Amino acid sequence: MGILPPPSTSPSADIMVHKALYLKDIFSQGYVDTLAWIHDVRSSNECVILVLRDSSDVVEVKICSEKWLPVLKNLTRESLVRIKGFIKSDHVLEPELVDIVIRAPPTIPIDVRSPLPDDVKTFTRYSYLVIRSPKYSKVFKVQQWIMYYSREFLLSRGFVELLPPMIGPCSDPGLRGARKLQTRLYGHLYELMSSVIMFKQASVAALEKVFFMARNVREEPPENLHTGRHLCEFTQLDLEWAFATMDDVMKLAEDLIVYVMTKVKERCKDIIEELNPYYKVPRTPFRRLRYVEAVEELKKLGVETPEGKEFTQEGERALSQLYEEPIWITHYPVISRGFYYLPDPEDPRFNRDFNLLLPRGFGEVIDGGEREYRAPEIRKRIEALGEPIEKYTWFLELAEIGIPPSAGFGLGIERFTRYVLNLKYIWEAAPFPKVPGVVPSP
Q1: Of the given ranges (50-54, 385-389, 435-439), which has the lowest mean pLDDT?
Q2: Is 85 left (phi over 0), alpha (psi -120 to 50) or beta?
Q3: Per-domain residue ranges of the chain
Q4: Which is it for the CA torsion 77, 83, 85, 87, positive or negative?
Q5: Equal CATH topology for 23-102 and 120-429
Q6: How confident is the model at residue 173, as a pLDDT?
Q7: Architecture of the CATH domain 120-429
């Protein structure tokens, strides 16, 4: 649509007035003194119906005062107004003041009342307006509590939260076709974090139980857009536990998911009921399938898995559609994964690792396992991947000094949010989403 003209304004002398009342409280107070956005406006006989919006609620009021009708009938959606007055019965407002603080242009790029996520290019291009939608404001409030209760749970289990690095000389090479992005720092080539895996292993040598709420960046293949569950910029709850086994951290993950989903349901009951009729806190323990068993399940469905490879996106979706509860897939082939997983001593062709698939087609939400900690083996695995060994100098030096055996996982916050709220696409679970193959976006 091109560049929009700046909105016209009529600033009042007290434009920065303190917001005295949130919309959610105006009917209990019987008085309005608030700043709010015009979510919608329509005429009804000799009255104007205003649908007002702020961070707390969307409310509808009727104004029939002749004094204010000429002003109100010319209001545009997404204008910011200050309103003072008395609330009568049936949501009738008798205004003392209606001040247009910001007048929005008559047309804006999307309908904030109901942005359409199926139109991914428009949805992501105007995500700075999508966030105003009541639906997505609710999504991000729930997402806040998902992160809050995840932290609460892990802190109660003795974990320490660390600030995640944003760049490093190397990052996770096991990206399933995605490309790492690079930048320069003082003339040296660095990578934007695609995973904090090596930093987790470094940290547990000091603190034993650590987690990051880590932002990661990857250039996903454009064809991954069709999965509806890939982002190029995403958040991962990444944890590591020294001297733990895969069984320890899988049990921890199950307890974490049950705790968070239980607490979120209590805290956000109304939103959950509105957005997700399928909401169900899963029972533990979750079912487990070994990789080779899962391959056989897919064959029955007519879905082939390339030998020694991770499941295709279609295969992963098909698996997760078979179940109504989360399911673990364990023991992936060594050749299909990054260098940081520990081979199973009983069958070194497979790792001691796992993915957690969410049911009803939502797919993978957790990736983790036991870590390779022996310096010679780490070097061999890096070389086998064809990665330049010099990029991993610092990590190999650390391994020579000594890092403890550990296990851990990463949980995708946006993917988990999508599941909790039954969202169709993952870009609905990110406030400013970057999606495969689509540019530009904020």
Answers
A1: 385-389
A2: left
A3: 23-102, 120-429
A4: positive
A5: no
A6: 67
A7: 2-Layer Sandwich (3.30)
CA 88 vs. chain centroid, Å, equals 42
Record the pTM.
Answer: 0.93
Measured CA to CA, the distance from residue 275 to residue 428 in angstroms comes to 12
pLDDT tens readout for residues 124-173 = 999 999 999 999 999 999 999 999 999 999 999 999 999 999 999 888 76
The predicted-structure confidence for 312-358, as pLDDT tens digits, reads as follows 888 899 999 999 999 999 999 998 888 899 999 999 999 999 999 99
Q: Do you find a cis peptide bond into 376, omega within 30 degrees of 0? A: no
A 10 A CB-CB count for 80 gives 18
H/E stretch holding 203: helix 197-207
| Secondary structure (3-state) at 45 | coil
The residues, any chain, with a CB within 8 Å of residue 53's CB and separated by 6 or more, are 23, 36, 37, 38, 39, 132, 134
Looking at domain 23-102, its CATH architecture is Beta Barrel (2.40)
Residue 441: CA atoms inside 13 Å, Cβ hemisphere, count?
25
**pLDDT cut 70: percent of the chain above it:** 95
Q: Rounded to a whole number, what is the distance in angstroms from the first to the last CA of the chain?
A: 15
- The rounded distance, in Å, linking the Cα atoms of 367 and 354 is 6
Taken in order 374, 380, 386, 391, is the CA torsion positive or negative? positive
Provide the Cα torsion 227, 230, 236, 242; round to 10°.
60
